[in-house]
Amino acid sequence: MESVQHIPEQNIEHIDHLPANEETVAKYGERANNGVIVVTLRYDKEARFTGGDSLTDYVSERVKWSEEFGVARFVARYTIDADGTFHLGDILQSTDHQLRNRVLKVLKTLPKWEPATKQGKAVESDYVLAVQLPKGKAMPKEPYVVIR
């Protein structure tokens, strides 16, 4: 590959640096004249949500959230087990308790996922869910505080 910038950091299992020597060039070709960086991913294929285009869209469509409530955000870690089961992890941010409760209620209705795979075998994988409602609205900026 030319670039690994598109790979989320959490998907990388480990990185190996191979020296620029005859063995490396023999294995990887002339492009390895300056050495090779081997990036091993945690899985070959990411877990796939089976309830629509994305988990964020699924949750956003099912949470009843009026513009009158203002803009709110919910961010949490989650795991998809090797059997496709969703498990909520740490809640990283919740700016409104009503949104939090509504998102948690929707998460209890999720269908099974198609699990991530590594070398053809289903494996556990970790992700982050971020839901901000109403869709398309920006979070208000924090006030600038000056202490004298």
Estimated share of beta-strand residues: 25-35%
Low-confidence stretches: none
Helix residue percentage: 10-25%
CATH class of the largest domain: Alpha Beta
What general form does the structure show?
extended
Average pLDDT number: 90
Element order, helices and strands? EHEHEEHEEE
CATH architecture of the largest domain: 2-Layer Sandwich
What does this protein structure show overall?
- The protein is an alpha+beta fold.
- It folds into two domains: 9-41, no CATH class; 55-133, TolA/TonB C-terminal domain (2-Layer Sandwich), CATH 3.30.2420.
- 18% of the residues lie in helices and 31% in strands.
- The chain has three helices and seven strands; from the N terminus they run E-H-E-H-E-E-H-E-E-E.
- It has helices at residues 22-28, 55-62, 97-107, and strands at residues 12-18, 36-41, 72-80, 86-94, 116-118, 121-123, 125-133.
- It has a three-stranded antiparallel β-sheet with strand order 4-3-7, with helices on one face.
- A hairpin with a 5-residue loop joins strand 3 and strand 4 (86-94).
- The protein is extended and about 65 Å long.
- The model has no long low-confidence stretch (mean pLDDT 90).
Which features characterize this protein?
single chain; 148 residues; alpha+beta; TolA/TonB C-terminal domain; 3-stranded antiparallel sheet; two-stranded antiparallel ribbon; 3 helices; 18% helix
